[in-house]
Amino acid sequence: MVETLFEDIFTVTNIDPDGKKFDKVNRIEARSEQFEMFMQLDINTEVYPIHREEKFMMVLASTLNLDGAPDSGYFLQGNRKSLADKFEYVMQGKLYRISEEGSGRLAKADIYVSFGGLLMQLRGDPSIAAKFELDQRLFILIRKV
User: Fold this and answer.
1) Could you read off the pLDDT of 95-133 as tens digits, one per residue?
2) Is the dihedral of CA 139, 108, 43, 11 positive or negative?
3) For the chain, how long is the longest CA-to-CA vector?
4) Quick check: 58 and 4 in contact, CB under 8 A?
5) For the chain, first and last CA: distance in Å?
6) Domain span including residue 139
7) pLDDT > 70? residue 32
8) Nearest Cα to Cα of residue 65 among 83, 43, 50
9) For residue 91, how many other CB atoms are within 10 A of its CB?
10) What percent of the chain has pLDDT over 70?
11) What's phi and psi for 126, nearest 5 deg?
12) Which residue from 118, 144, 143, 130 is spatially nearest to 6, judged by alpha carbons?
């Protein structure tokens, strides 16, 4: 069974807060329900349109293999089922920065991932950041709820 690194339901609170930068990409801001995380994420809206106030489930995983086997780094075509079959939008990327600020109850951690130039920032509880490693390959999986 696949063990996910992070999973929560988010609500889109803002789109392109600093203005539109690219024709087919929106930067969304969203808040999660369970862990109260803040996320900024670049999404190819030509492929996957998303709007303010929409809710979506977001999962971060290190593999798409349903048996939890490590990802080989190669896409193999075939009829083999994967975690991606349960989602509408999937990207592969690399975690390039982890930072923490504050202390005690006010401590926050930031995780930064690049999905081929589409960026994600996930901010919140530092205990969640402990599950991640620098230069780790990750999959982000999204489906609307």
Assistant:
1) 999 999 988 888 999 999 999 999 999 999 999 999 999
2) positive
3) 49
4) no
5) 23
6) 6-144
7) yes
8) 83
9) 21
10) 97
11) -60, -25
12) 130
